[in-house]
Amino acid sequence: MSDQQLLPSDQNSGEYVANSRSFSRQVCFKVVVMLSYFLLLAWRFISLLLYSIHATSCFFQEKVASYRCKNFTTFSYANGLEISWQVTSFINTLIVILVLVTVPSYEGYLSTLRNNSRHARFWSLFAQLIVAVSYNIIVICTETLGISKVIEVMFILGEISTTLVVYLWNTVPSPWREPRDPAKNLAYTLTLVVFILENLYLFVLTSTQAAFQVTGVNNFRQTPSTLQAITIVVNAGEATFYYAMMKFFWNKWFDDRRNLLINDNV
Question: Which domain of life is it from (predicted)?
């Protein structure tokens, strides 16, 4: 009789242990995912810092683009580290896009793009993207070094993916308005900070290069004057693109629920 009475208790105990193990696995998985993401953000920031040192030094010392710099000696493998930064940034941007599927009541990628396409700022931002990509295509067409072409292709991928983030995250609320989740809030904030810093530096660098007519075009001074003029114009246009990206993430930090495109805050 006593054995029969213990059976339900044993069954409940077994279910409790199984649920506890399942919960522990979920917690461990979440911890691993968040730590991995924070490490990704950390390397994105560090590699951005290294790239900024490299690019700034090349501009002031040799008046050339980073991948054409010959006398940079602060650290080795500068071009490889630049590509590493670009790849990390691109992966991070893809994660930011993919994580949208976890946002409650998110309307979907295509629906979001359709709704945002009703705003004039959507198309003017798209025009800025076309100008920025055009500059990189000009550089690729005139470049002979393979690593330089890889860097320019990665810039194109980064510009396209960042524009998609702006389009798709336009009306998504920040997680700190939802039930408290410190890890998610921190990840969201740090992601915005890295996006802001990255696009701010690229805006400053690109606009300065345009002002001093320092382009990535190979043998720029020997190219036809028409191509020189077009290159300078689209290079300046690329600077406005990075400014628009930086401005969006900056405003997103403070005003997450407004439609930033319709209010022309980009």
Answer: Eukaryota
The secondary structure of 207-259 as a DSSP string is: HHHHHTT--SSTTGGGS-HHHHHHHHHHHHHHHHHHHHHHHHHHHHHH--SS-
- Angle formed at CA 243 by CA 109 and CA 237, multiple of 5 degrees: 95
Min mean pLDDT across 10-14, 156-160, 241-245 is at 10-14
Supply the pTM of this predicted model: 0.85
CA atoms within 13 A on the CB side of 120: 3
End-to-end CA distance of the chain: 75
Per DSSP, the three-state class of 4 is: helix
SS3 call for 174: coil
The set of long-range contacts for 260-265, using a CB threshold of 8 Å and a minimum separation of 24, is: 260/170, 261/116, 261/119, 261/121, 261/122, 261/125, 261/170, 262/119, 262/121, 264/121
Question: Cα(14)–Cα(146) distance, rounded to whole angstroms?
Answer: 61
Closest to 65 in 3D by CA, of 80, 73, 55, 57 = 55
Q: What is the pLDDT of residues 180-189, one digit of tens each?
A: 778 888 898 9
